[in-house]
Amino acid sequence: MAVVGFLVLVELVSGLLQGMMPSLLPRIGAELHVGAGDLSWVSSAQLLSSAVCVPLFARLGDMYGHRRLLRVAVVTLAAGSVLVALLLGIGQGSHWGWTDARTLGLFTIAVVACAVWTRVELRVAEPLVDLQLITRRDLLPVYVAAFMVGVAVFGAQTAASLFVAGPPKLLGYGFGYDTLGIAWILLPSGLCALLAAGVSGRLAKTVRSRTLLAGGGVLMCAGYLVLTALHDQPWQFVVANCLIGFGTGLCLSAMPALILDASPADRTGIATGIHNTTKTIGGSVASAVFAAVLTALTLPGTQVPTENAYRTVWACCAGVALLVTLSACTVRPSSPATRPAGQPQPAAAA
Fold this sequence. Notes:
Elements: H1 2-32, H2 36-64, H3 66-86, H4 101-123, H5 131-134, H6 140-154, H7 157-165, H8 168-171, H9 179-203, H10 209-229, H11 234-262, H12 268-296, H13 307-329
Helix pairs in contact: 1-2, 1-7, 1-9, 2-3, 2-12, 6-11, 6-12, 6-13, 9-11, 10-11, 10-13, 11-12, 12-13
């Protein structure tokens, strides 16, 4: 019972860390005079570090015990939180441009490093990340869906917070909310995701997990389409995000079940770790892309995004959510009845 309580506490802390950043971004931008595009990199850095650590800890947990690695993770989290609290500012890099030699050089280095790492992982006997799992016919669509969910959920967080904080009298959009107001208006979305996670456990007894994943993608797509068209009033923003939140909850509940059904018994740890990493990488990539959108579409003479910039982000998220549904349709069908008796429905991974 103590173990369960500790795991619940870890999940709560994880949710707090993920949820506090979008609410704080407008205040960070105002205090440090940072534009909307640059603020997206704050979330991107957090997601990138998570993407690196998840497969590492998943594999080490399989090797040395998950209990021991969980302790290491908690201590590291505490140390990192103290370090962040002591930081006095965030450095802002210079704007180089997409065709600058330095930018192209960084892209080249990233591609080469990824190719070398992939070759090494495929050749060693005990890889840190079993890339052959990703290419399995029954797992690949789930990982693609996880990437798309990360794009649609994490990528839009910064844009949502900045839009809500925008002063309507000056910009013609937004609600002028402070940090607390942003947290309150985003709260219903999180509650809907939690509700969906609870409902999906019962639905999984009669509905296939891939159907839940497809339905979640449809709801997310509908929510973003509503948000693209209707965002003048707070209640419109809340309704749209409730659809997105409920769809997200269904997706996050269905994907671990699909992965556990399809992955080998001795690779479940790394298989679920790859799922979380893929989802996080999707959010990191989306943060970078949407940062470029918010930086490119600005009001004349300012770094403030136009309303069309936010519409573009939400429309992209709607299209990506539709890809989640399409990926779910290609998953090999598996019935809950095929799961061994007594095996519980996997919990949603945040």
